[in-house]
Amino acid sequence: MPVLLDAVKQFRSGLSTAFHSIYLNGSVARRDAVWGKSDVNFTIVVKHKLQSNEASALNAITWRLTNHYPHVRNVTTKVVVLDDVLGLAGIFEWGVWLKHCSVCLNGDDLSSRFGHFEISWDIARTLNGDIKTQLSEYRHKIMKTKVTENYLDYCEHIGKKMIWSAYCLVLHRKQQWELDINKGADVFLEYFPEHLMDIERAFILASRTQVPKKAAIFLMDQFGGWLVEEFDKTNRRIG
Asked: Which InterPro entries does the entry link to (predicted)?
């Protein structure tokens, strides 16, 4: 709670007139965070695109919070402009995100603008984003980095991304919201039990266990490539 109260105070002050509202996401919002191991994830809605000084203030606040609270591994922020949240084009992304994946901490709670969403392929596809591009970007990052901590960060991110993508692939079939990565993996394995080993290996990456680069790349190419193909096939079938 001290972290959240401090974060709200600092972000409101630092972003000044740009600030609209702030939301809590991730394991802290789900109340299953692990002391000393979990990140604190925020979504901040702003009234306009941040100016350079406002973006600098945001980065400085995030850095201060991360370093001031040693039991918090990292503080992350996702920033979105108010018009993008309320626009029709962003309804499946931001409407679902704020309604089902967020807790409003301060400001005008935009989740009240949306009713409960009926799970669909459009929602699953939009929430997941472009897995193909992320796999390509993180493959490049992993290949190039020589810093162990950065390597573990990249592996953790892409490991979690593959697991969440696997869940999003079957979300419309299961019709079941899951915000816990372990439960999401279980849902996926109900439909694709033959990929148990791939999921277990993705969890190894997500746990920041150091594995050889060639092992991480192999999983991204094989399992990640399969996920990309399945998303494409499902998209062609459903539209």
From this structure: NT_sf
Pairing of strands 103-107, 19-25: antiparallel
User: What's the rounded Cα separation, in Å, for the pair 69 and 45?
Assistant: 24
DSSP label of 116 = P
Q: Is 108 helix (H, G, I), strand (E, B) or coil?
A: coil
- Could you give the 3-state DSSP secondary structure of residue 24? strand
Strand, coil or helix: 177: coil
CB contact set of 134 (below 8 Å; sequence gap of 6+): 158, 161
Torsions phi, psi for 30 (to 5 deg): -80, -10
Predicted confidence (pLDDT) at residue 36 exceeds the cutoff of 90 = no
Cα 231-234-237 angle, rounded to 5 deg: 150
- In the beta sheet, which residues pair with residue 74? 39
pLDDT at 90: 82
